[in-house]
Amino acid sequence: MTHVLTGDYTPLSAVDIFVKDLGLVLDMARASKFPLPVSSTVHQMFMQASSAGFAREDDSAVIKIFPGIDLPPARPPATDASS
Length: 83
Known about the structure:
Blueprint: H1 2-6, H2 15-31, H3 37-54
């Protein structure tokens, strides 16, 4: 949530990590014939975020796929004060 509020999508865990990990979970569930409808929906949301160009941003960037949400502006990248 902090990433969204500050407009900082520097990846701590990227959108594509969730695509991969949720895909693995769903593969295991499918092999066991265990239904995971919410996980399946979330996987689709992260795939949409990835396809929309947010693949390497923080996983919180998934919020960007929802229309009608006014998000804070992107924070400029931090500069190294020792330079």
